């Protein structure tokens, strides 16, 4: 089913919002407001936004560390205030300031995150088992990077998910680098999607800079999953515009990433590409899009103020965080 | 470098000893091989000889109990070295050997990097458990006056509690090792003639006897043996004493008979070990020897090993040697350990017909006490005749030994005494 | 009271809890057959949808429990051998242990990770461990180590009802141990030590199989020394109060535990007693643990694992009484 113009504008809005919030956290690193580290997702917004758009609130999403999941979180209905406040170490953060960069919102199917790369697969597997047992048509969308595909947990989880025909959509956000490691030196095949073959599931490879293409591919996989046909794999070819993390060198191994490669990808900024398309196809006017841009900037400023004004967590809460009663 | 006088390890089970008497005074000269000090272990006294010649500086006073290996005196090579040692004051604790750690055999040595636990505590040279220190502080007890009895020579709670109790009983602060003559002390209106410290051998006897009655189901079987054959045999042996080379005693013959009866009824030659009864292949018979130590008395049980395997001549010589060592206080701990059965001869201190109810020497399962041999009228073939008769009593542990085997043992024991020739079979 | 084996007591706990709450399910490798006879018969009763045989994949087992617990299920995941928990170290020690804490207490993990621990079966270095200290060391995991059929059943029921990750180590050498278990329903609370035998001269704190060893030794030496045997039953939470009370009575402490001595459970318990009740101690406490070596297979295993003779020797050392006959 083709996207409506309203849905197209929502995709655009979420990409703009993701970019503004990502920039807020990058800025926070520079001026000391962000208390932890940050792995900017600038340039990759189309994957999270396209992949998470129009899922059900009770579908489970594993976002990954690029942009600390802001594109996925916003698209899934999560609150940006909690995102910024958490990064600023405040008690009003999504994790009550306990994690610094995690995000959780069970109401919107965001059950949390782990910073150990490769944790995505076994946890998503468990969500998939639960979704299947619950038998309410829930699906799991698990985003992971090309680096995570090097982990053995991928094999263990993808294998069992296929064996059990679990409703899981595996989405690889392939930005070609795992920190400083180029994919060609870390992965034995050309495409991550080729992993679908041994696990007996279908796959698609899409342009990760095209939010609609991403959305359509993931939607195809989601529908299969809801219909009980088991997991699928979608690989999104994308690129990060900034270094692995703020303050880290922007290198491939030990040398700068090739400047022509960086320039070529920056010309394919997903936000600009989609804006042009909306205007070209007359889905939205410049005025509409400018208003969306302004709203996003204002929303980001407000969340930042909220975070700045929020108190730090009180150490007295530490013990009660550990165990549930 | 001064030489050391240290507590020797005189047996596998020995963990400490009490300094009884310094035979050489402080500052006196001792020659190599000369007895310097007498020490007392749980059951025996031992003279420690100087390994070097020199002038003695005493580190541990008389009446103090210290662990094996503890250096109790130093032998200075020169008089000036002696003066220097004496000037140093209270010395730190020295030992000749690291104290053995009783690690279970199944466990290998700790890996490199693991330290050995239990070295002296930080506060001074005396080892004191935290509990003992706390109680001592609460009651104002001077720890230096206390004899440690805990593991590794440590003062433990019981030691301090004992000190507090004795202080409350208005006992002298430092109890001498010998009985104290009456000094007009009264307790609950009763005048005290002598105070015997419950320590050393006295304490060991008290604890062993009490524990034995606590742990075992003891009952006593009483009978008498016709000793005609034994009396006749002994007469013959004594007649040829010079050529045989030993002096046969009733005790020798009685333990031979006991060994023979144990061979036939082995369940009496056993111990409870854990959940099991171990019936011993070795027949090691302990013989109770009373010691004349004045009002205090004393008792020690040297052990003749493998009695059933030895001719009477050897048994007799070994027993005689042990008794002599016992009376001289020279028994080694290994002389008094390893018994599997005990014989106690009450006849040495009485006459006429009497028996006792002996207490089992733990962890054995039986003990036999013998009374005096005396001529008694007995009925033989319908006639009253006079026969030498010996009453005896057999205490056995009913946890291990039932009445029937006990009776069988007694019958065989009496039979062998009556017809000692059967021991040849 | 009827007497049943330890493994059947565990099985009863699983049957009762699965009947009581449909959110409870069992997952692991070969749990339908039940490698140790614990989970056997459950599949006939509850079907393969609630007694899930997984591929040979510990991270998949751990992840299934982890993910499903986040969504409100109460999984019981079996690792077969406790040694295998290391394979899923990230899932157990990093993810499960920290998840609730790191997400501000907003997601609970009501799951049980169970596994057979302990030597005595001569299975060699990779199938004989008792990695209790690893779990006890990790904040966020509870740890139960039952020593009797009664405790095994009652603790497992409590573990399943607990709203937190519980590691439940059952001891291989106890599986066939028979003991009284009431017909009526009961649970055993966490954090409540059980005085398995009262005594006045020395406190022996023992876990799992070592409890049985300690009771045997206590009986053997009862004429000469009065031994109190305390079974903490759970090591997290640890009922240190009960242990301290006992040491205040006896003044002497031996801790017998099958994990490796260095940095082990015994070291922790003794340290806590030193901190809380130093003045009650009348002798330096002793540990009776596995030697600081891997556990060998075959006959030589006994030279590394703690034995009753070691407990006896430790009691002798702290009391200064010769107890060997």
What keyword list fits this structure?
heterotrimer, B: 425 residues, OB fold (Dihydrolipoamide Acetyltransferase, E2P), Dihydrolipoamide Transferase, 3 domains, C: 325 residues, Rossmann fold, seven-stranded mixed sheet, globular
Structure report:
The complex is a heterotrimer of chains A (325), B (425) and C (325). Chain A is α/β, with parallel strands linked by helices and 325 residues long. Chain A is built from eleven helices and nine strands. Helices cover 43% and strands 11% of the residues of chain A. The longest helix of chain A has 27 residues, at 5-31. Chain B has 425 residues and is an alpha+beta fold. Chain B has helices at 79-87, 130-139, 157-168, 200-215, 228-239, 241-244, 250-264, 312-327, 403-418; strands spanning 3-6, 16-22, 29-30, 35-40, 45-49, 54-58, 65-67, 71-76, 180-181, 186-187, 190-191, 194-195, 218-226, 270-273, 276-279, 285-287, 289-290, 299-300, 303-304, 341-345, 366-370, 374-380, 383-397. Chain C has 325 residues and is α/β, with parallel strands linked by helices. Chain C folds into two domains: 3-180, Rossmann fold, CATH 3.40.50.970; 194-319, Rossmann fold (3-Layer(aba) Sandwich). Helix content of chain C is 35%, strand content 21%. Chain C has helices at 6-20, 42-46, 58-70, 89-102, 132-137, 149-161, 209-220, 240-250, 265-277, 308-319; strands at residues 3-5, 24-28, 51-53, 74-81, 112-117, 142-144, 166-171, 178-180, 194-197, 202-206, 227-231, 234-236, 253-260, 286-290. In chain C, the strands form three sheets. A seven-stranded mixed β-sheet of chain C has the order 3-2-4-5-7-6-12, sandwiched between helices. The two termini of chain C are 36 Å apart.
């Amino acid at each position: 089913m083709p996207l409506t113009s309203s849905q197209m504008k929502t995709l655009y809005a979420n990409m703009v919002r993701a970019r503004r919030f990502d920039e807020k956290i990058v800025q926070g690193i520079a001026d000391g407001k962000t208390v932890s580290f940050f792995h900017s997702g600038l340039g990759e917004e189309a994957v999270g936004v396209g992949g998470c758009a129009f899922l059900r609130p009770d579908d489970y999403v594993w976002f990954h560390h690029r942009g600390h999941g802001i594109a996925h979180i916003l698209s899934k209905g999560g609150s940006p205030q909690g995102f910024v406040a958490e990064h600023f170490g405040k008690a009003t953060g999504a994790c009550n300031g306990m994690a610094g960069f995690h995000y959780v919102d069970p109401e919107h199917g965001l059950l949390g995150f782990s910073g150990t790369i490769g944790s995505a697969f076994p946890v998503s597997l468990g969500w998939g088992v639960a979704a299947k047992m619950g038998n309410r048509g829930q699906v799991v969308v698990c985003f992971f990077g090309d680096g995570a595909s090097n982990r053995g947990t991928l094999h263990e989880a993808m294998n069992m998910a296929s064996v059990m025909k679990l409703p899981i959509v595996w989405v690889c956000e392939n930005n070609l680098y795992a920190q400083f490691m180029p994919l060609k030196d870390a992965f034995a095949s050309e495409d991550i999607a080729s992993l679908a073959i041994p696990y007996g599931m279908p796959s698609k490879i899409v342009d990760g800079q095209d939010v609609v293409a991403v959305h359509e591919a993931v939607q195809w996989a989601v529908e299969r999953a809801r219909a009980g046909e088991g997991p699928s794999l979608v690989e999104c070819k994308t690129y990060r515009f900034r270094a692995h993390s703020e303050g880290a060198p922007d290198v491939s191994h030990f040398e700068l990433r090739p400047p022509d490669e960086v320039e070529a990808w920056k010309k394919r900024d997903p936000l600009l590409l989609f804006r042009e398309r909306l205007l070209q196809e007359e889905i939205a006017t410049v005025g509409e899009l400018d208003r969306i841009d302004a709203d996003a900037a204002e929303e980001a400023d407000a969340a930042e103020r909220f975070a700045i004004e929020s108190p730090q967590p009180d150490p007295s809460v530490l013990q009660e965080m550990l165990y549930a009663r | 470098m001064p030489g050391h006088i240290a507590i020797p390890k005189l047996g596998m089970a020995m963990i400490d000893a009490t300094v009884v008497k310094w035979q050489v005074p402080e500052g006196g000269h001792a020659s190599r091989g000369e007895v310097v000090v007498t020490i007392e272990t749980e059951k025996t006294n031992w003279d420690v000889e100087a390994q070097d010649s020199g002038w003695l500086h005493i580190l541990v006073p008389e009446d103090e109990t210290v662990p094996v290996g503890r250096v109790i005196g130093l032998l200075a090579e020169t008089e000036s070295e002696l003066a220097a040692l004496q000037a140093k004051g209270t010395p730190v604790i020295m030992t000749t050997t690291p104290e053995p750690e009783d690690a279970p055999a199944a466990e290998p040595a700790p890996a490199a990097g693991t330290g050995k636990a239990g070295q002296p505590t930080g506060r001074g040279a005396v080892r004191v458990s935290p509990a003992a220190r706390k109680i001592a502080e609460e009651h104002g007890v001077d720890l230096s006056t206390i004899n440690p009895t805990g593991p590794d020579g440590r003062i433990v709670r019981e030691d301090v509690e004992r000190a507090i109790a004795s202080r409350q009983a208005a006992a002298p602060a430092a109890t001498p090792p010998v009985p104290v003559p009456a000094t007009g002390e009264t307790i609950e209106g009763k005048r005290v003639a002598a105070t015997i410290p419950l320590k050393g051998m006295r304490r060991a006897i008290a604890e062993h006897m009490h524990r034995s009655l606590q742990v075992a189901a003891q009952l006593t079987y009483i009978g008498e043996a016709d000793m005609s054959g034994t009396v006749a045999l002994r007469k013959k042996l004594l007649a040829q004493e010079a050529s045989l080379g030993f002096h046969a005693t009733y005790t020798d013959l009685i333990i031979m008979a006991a060994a023979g009866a144990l061979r036939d009824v082995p369940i009496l030659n056993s111990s409870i070990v854990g959940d099991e009864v171990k019936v011993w292949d070795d027949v090691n018979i302990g013989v109770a020897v009373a010691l004349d130590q004045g009002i205090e008395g004393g008792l020690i049980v040297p052990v003749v090993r493998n009695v059933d395997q030895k001719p009477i001549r050897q048994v007799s010589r070994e027993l005689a040697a042990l008794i002599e060592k016992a009376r001289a206080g020279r028994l080694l701990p290994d002389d008094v350990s390893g018994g599997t059965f005990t014989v106690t001869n009450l006849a040495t201190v009485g006459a006429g017909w009497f028996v006792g109810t002996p207490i089992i020497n733990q962890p054995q399962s039986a003990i036999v006490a013998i009374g005096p041999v005396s001529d008694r009228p007995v009925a033989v073939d319908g006639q009253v005749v006079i026969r030498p008769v010996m009453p005896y009593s057999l205490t056995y542990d009913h946890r291990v030994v039932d009445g029937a085997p006990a009776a069988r043992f007694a019958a065989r024991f009496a039979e062998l005494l009556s017809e000692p020739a059967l021991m040849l079979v | 009271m009827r007497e049943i084996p330890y493994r059947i007591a565990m099985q009863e706990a699983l049957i009762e809890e699965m009947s009581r709450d449909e959110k409870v399910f069992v997952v692991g490798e070969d749990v339908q057959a039940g490698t140790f006879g614990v989970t056997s018969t459950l599949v006939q009763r509850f079907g393969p949808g609630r007694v899930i045989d997984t591929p040979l994949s510990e991270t998949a087992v751990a992840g299934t429990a982890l993910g499903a617990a986040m969504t409100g299920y109460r999984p019981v995941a079996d690792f077969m051998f406790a040694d295998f928990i290391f394979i899923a170290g990230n899932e157990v020690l990093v993810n499960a242990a920290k998840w609730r804490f790191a997400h501000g207490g907003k997601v609970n993990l009501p799951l049980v990770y169970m596994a057979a621990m302990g030597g005595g079966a001569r299975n060699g270095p990779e199938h004989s461990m008792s990695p209790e200290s690893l779990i006890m060391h990790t904040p966020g995991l509870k740890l139960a180590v039952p020593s009797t059929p009664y405790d095994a059943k009652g603790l497992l029921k409590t573990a399943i009802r607990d709203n937190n990750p519980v590691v439940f180590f059952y001891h291989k050498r106890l599986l066939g141990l028979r003991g009284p278990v009431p017909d009526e329903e009961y649970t055993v609370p966490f954090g409540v030590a059980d005085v398995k035998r009262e005594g006045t001269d020395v406190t022996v704190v023992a876990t799992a199989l070592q409890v049985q060893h300690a009771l045997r030794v206590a009986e053997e030496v009862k004429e000469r020394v009065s031994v109190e045997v305390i079974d903490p039953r759970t090591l997290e939470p640890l009922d240190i109060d009960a242990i301290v009370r006992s040491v205040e009575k006896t003044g002497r402490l031996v801790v017998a535990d099958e994990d490796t001595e260095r940095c082990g459970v015994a070291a922790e318990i003794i340290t806590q007693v030193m901190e809380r009740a130093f003045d009650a101690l009348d002798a330096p406490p002793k540990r009776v643990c596995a030697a600081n070596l891997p556990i060998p297979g075959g006959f030589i295993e006994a030279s590394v694992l703690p034995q009753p003779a070691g407990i006896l020797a430790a009691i002798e050392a702290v009391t200064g009484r010769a107890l060997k006959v």
